[in-house]
Design brief:
- By secondary structure, the protein is mostly helical.
- Helices cover 52% and strands 9% of the residues.
- Strands 1-2 form a two-stranded antiparallel ribbon.
- It is globular.
Length: 117
């Protein structure tokens, strides 16, 4: 994604209350519509608005029934999470490689569309 496209998107999020509300309400739909990218895999996108007076805690997923708790704890605590920032403002917290590639596909498609405008 080009810096210009990222900056334009950040400005839209900050300055367009209708767009911001849509993004908060259904971020996956908005990102996929804008980018034209249609991933085949099922995934979710959650948006958390940053506030000056709030610390955000991301909780690890609970172990599945029958899953080894010690193994799950080790896997979760030793995982390296990918944080992809957009123009230095905000960012994407990506918990695994599968989702990293989905997000990269969305962002690449989105940047290509932005450059074509």
């Amino acid at each position: 994604m080009t810096a210009d496209a990222g900056t334009a998107h950040t400005l839209q999020i900050v300055n367009d209350p209708t767009y911001r509300a849509r993004l908060l309400a259904d971020p996956k739909r908005v990102l996929c519509e804008e980018s034209g990218y249609r991933p085949r895999e099922d995934f979710a996108v959650e948006v958390v608005e940053e506030r000056d007076d709030t610390i955000v805690i991301l909780l690890p997923a609970r172990p599945r029934d029958g899953e080894d708790f010690e193994g799950r704890l080790a896997e979760t605590s030793q995982r390296v999470h990918d944080v992809l920032f957009s123009s230095g403002v905000g960012g994407f917290f990506i918990p695994d490689d599968r989702l990293k590639w989905i997000l990269r596909g969305i962002r690449s498609s989105w940047a290509a569309r932005a450059e074509g405008r």
